[in-house]
Amino acid sequence: METKDLLKKVRKIEIKTRRLSDHIFSGEYHTSFKGRGMTFSEVRQYQYGDDIRAIDWNVTARYNEAHVKVFEEERELTMMLMVDISGSESFGTKNQLKSEIVTEIAATMAFSATQNNDKIGLILFSDQIELYIPPKKGKSHVLRIIRELIEFQPKSNKTDLSQALKFLSGTQKKKAIVFVISDFMVNDDYEKTLKIASKKHDVTGIRVFDIREEKIPNIGMVEMEDAETGEILVVDTSSKKARMNYEKHYQEKVNYFKDIFSKCGSGTVNTRVDESYVTKLLSYFKSR
């Protein structure tokens, strides 16, 4: 992509998503996530009304008098955006590709974090880590993230979410607000790595999908290509059994996403490319 065209795209996304983050998401993001992390401050003598769960038994035993640990809110948080850039994201039938919606959501969340003076980092993944940008603050940093979301070309079309979550846990030692943005049409079992990541971080899965992925219309014999493997199959869509098998396979992937995220104590958002992701995200933030 020419530099001039790239800058135009970046500017267009900045204008749209910054307006959303400034006027809609900023307050909701602050309410939902600010101050959820706590850091140790000091130890002091126990006072009537203190939570007994905060008692420091080692110090209490040393001085033979009850002492409690005092914590304070972490005012500065870190947001990590984990974005799926595999082949299946380059699909769309309603004016926009899934990848374009993914970029808008990621940019909106990044600007919301910036409004609260938080750090933002980025992990672009397929079945490997395609790009890692460590967390930093500032508008220029956010604009770099948006540029990468627009123009980065992955080396692989396949997906491995488990590897991406493992990388997150290995690199991000401090508690972070993590948004995993993907269609979650993956073949790997990511329960174990999600469980590990969710114990340390506040993880939310944002599933972006297209209406044509849910069901196959009855249009006769059709050539279909797997965007991740390149395999081409001829499918008889007039066959009720073929349509039912496809829908069953699709729904299994969706149910796995919902069940595993719920089991690991992580949140989920589902938004179709022709729906308002603004409404979906606001509803999610308010429900936290």
Automatic annotation (TrEMBL):
Designated name of the protein: DUF58 domain-containing protein
PANTHER family hit by this protein: BLL2464 PROTEIN
InterPro entries per record: DUF58, VWF_A, vWFA_dom_sf
PROSITE patterns in the record: VWFA
Annotated organism of origin: Flavobacterium aureirubrum
Record-annotated VWFA domain positions: 78-211
SMART domains associated with the record: VWA (SM00327)
Pfam families reported for this sequence: DUF58
